[in-house]
Write a structure and sequence with these properties.
The chain has 3 helices and 10 strands. The protein has helices spanning 4-30, 167-173, 189-193; strands spanning 78-80, 83-85, 95-102, 124-126, 134-140, 145-153, 161-165, 180-187, 205-207, 213-215. The longest helix is centred in the first third of the chain and has 27 residues, at 4-30.
Length: 220
């Protein structure tokens, strides 16, 4: 039978071991969780580029030039989600007012409706019915900014939206954060030849003091 001193030593050793276990447990619970690296972007979903190149706000506007309108191809009637779209087949002015959206990395490098490769860093856009190819001036009335884009694709196909911009065009107009009201004006061949797109008074439009566009008369 163990004597009293032996029992006291065993009890003391047990207390030391128990204290050590409790201390280690407390230290482990007080440590911050291991930092996790951010999840990589879902490249199957649309969005901004993984890495935004510097100087995009300095990318120049598209330079309008007279290009023959293609017969058929992207200019023939088509159907999306049960709705029929009939592209304009002649060189006529067009003015649209509505929401502007944009498309990015999901379509970057893929063919557009015109057959050209989509470049989210170029000054291009998609329109449901504007003749392909066309050039258009897009104005953001909220800030007075405007850009010139080359229309070489179809879309958007959402009610209330009138144009899908490239990432760079949307950046320059400051419409990346949400669908934004804009004014879209197609530049006719006559306006391009006369360089009227360089001014703010082509195709019967005049600019008010805030830099927005107001129709000077009835328009088709």
């Amino acid at each position: 039978m163990p004597n009293a001193p032996s029992l006291r030593r065993c009890s003391l050793q047990s207390l030391v071991v128990l204290s050590l276990v409790l201390w280690l447990t407390a230290c482990a619970s007080s440590r911050s969780p291991t930092a996790r690296l951010p999840a990589p972007p879902d490249l199957s979903a649309d969005g901004p580029p993984v890495t935004v190149p510097p100087g995009l706000v300095e990318v120049p506007n598209a330079v309008p030039r007279v290009e023959p309108l293609r017969a058929g191809g992207p200019n023939k009637p088509y159907e999306v989600a049960g709705r029929l779209y009939v592209p304009i087949a002649s060189d006529v002015p067009l003015v649209d007012r509505g929401g502007a959206s944009w498309y990015g990395r999901k379509y970057h490098g893929r063919p557009t409706s015109s057959g050209e490769v989509y470049d989210m860093f170029a000054m291009t856009a998609a329109h449901p019915t504007m003749p392909i190819p066309s050039y258009a001036r897009v104005t953001n009335p909220a800030n007075g900014r405007e850009v010139i884009v080359r229309v070489n694709d179809r879309g958007p196909f959402v009610p209330g939206r009138v144009i899908d911009l490239s990432y760079t065009a949307a950046l320059k107009l400051d419409v990346l954060r949400a669908v934004t009201p804009v004014i879209v004006e197609r530049l006719t061949h006559d306006a391009i030849r006369a360089l009227r797109w360089l001014s703010h008074a082509d195709d019967g439009f005049e600019r008010d003091a805030r830099g927005t566009q107001a129709a000077a008369g009835p328009r088709p």
